[in-house]
Amino acid sequence: MSEEYVVETQNLTRRFGKFTAVDRVNFYIPRGEIFGLLGPNGAGKTTTIRMLCGILNPSEGDASVIGHDIRRESELIKQKIGYMSQKFALYNDLTPKENLAFYSSIYGVPKAIRAERIKHLIRTAGLDKHENELTRNLSGAWRQRLALACAIAHEPPMLFLDEATAGVDPVSRRAFWDLIYEMAGQGVTILATTHYMDEAEYCNTIGLMYQARLIAVSSPDTLRDNLQGTLVEIDCEKPLDALEAARTVKGVLEASLHGIHIHVAVEDEKALKRLISHLEKLDIPIHGTEQIIPSLEDVFISMVQEQAREQELAAGPAVSYK
Known about the structure:
Blueprint: E1 5-16, E2 19-25, E3 28-30, E4 34-38, H1 45-52, E5 60-65, E6 68-69, H2 74-80, E7 81-85, H3 96-106, H4 111-124, H5 140-151, E8 158-162, H6 170-185, E9 189-194, H7 197-200, E10 205-210, E11 213-218, H8 220-225, E12 230-236, H9 239-246, E13 252-258, E14 261-266, H10 269-281, E15 286-291, H11 296-315
Parallel strand pairs: 4-9, 4-10, 7-8, 8-9
Antiparallel strand pairs: 1-2, 1-3, 1-5, 5-6, 10-11, 12-14, 12-15, 13-14
Helix pairs in contact: 3-4, 3-5
């Protein structure tokens, strides 16, 4: 393993019986970078984090976190990382100040600096006006900020966020990510899992996970730039019928539903004209078309569909028995 990276994995794999939850995952995270694992529930994101935190041993492969091997030095890793999940581990009968005092003692913050450290955490999280309220009375957004403050009480160089913003409103999520940016600016390395596509935009690098595998690793801009073809949004009647029809047209690379519109990736202008002509023949009125910049959702859907096609080809033609 290289000393250059805070996190590095090599063919990291975890099986539960015959079920493979994480399948030969490879990535690395430089110091001070925000790395996002993006994918649907069940893709293997949480299992990956649990292995990196030293909670689960891998079935195969290796990984290091802050220079420590996850198999042999899991206890050292646990002492040097911060961890926060969507299920905030807070004590509802304590105030934020008391929660922070408890976690500071658990994480071994020296008594001589503990009081000052708690004051700093309260200011950082913006909890000045809430520090003496019972935690159970705080809103979800304030509980989230408190959970983050507890996770970094010992000033860890590495922070794991596992679906930490699930169930929080968009404005509060943005404020939370502002705090994460500040921490990264101070040299903290962050690995965040999420299924919110918009959150992935905040990451320096994204790993797209699907069915236990890492199907792409790159920056958000690079992932968008690598999307094949030209992306067009079509406003039409009967969008579900239009979606099915689009997938049969030559030159249409991908097609997916986005609200009441469909997004299609086409090889060229001729393919788009063929598609429009085909929809008109099917009596599907078109209100407008517009070339658009692909979102990460478009990229993810495209890659998932490509994976599905590759699996179908690998499986070979279906055999019918009569």
